[in-house]
Amino acid sequence: MAISLIVGLSDVPYIDSTAMGIVLRTHATVSRTGGGLRLLRVQRHVRELLELTRLSSELETFHSEAHALTSFASIPLSSL
Q1: Which of 31, 36, 79, 80 is deepest in the core (most CB within 10 A)?
Q2: Where do the domains of the chain lie, and which CATH numbers do they carry?
């Protein structure tokens, strides 16, 4: 069963290595099911960390919930 998650980060000004590890493990888990993880409204410091660690290319970020939801349309239906 595919799992797709949108994680809102508008109230998260900072993320430490433990939290980043949880995000990455969650991303790996939902990807294995054929789903996806999207990050919503990522704050500047968190975005900088994603870019610095080169995770910005692995973790999709969105400014609007509508765009994040639409991005799941690219997941093949056979995965759902």
Answers
A1: 36
A2: 4-73 (3.30.750.24)
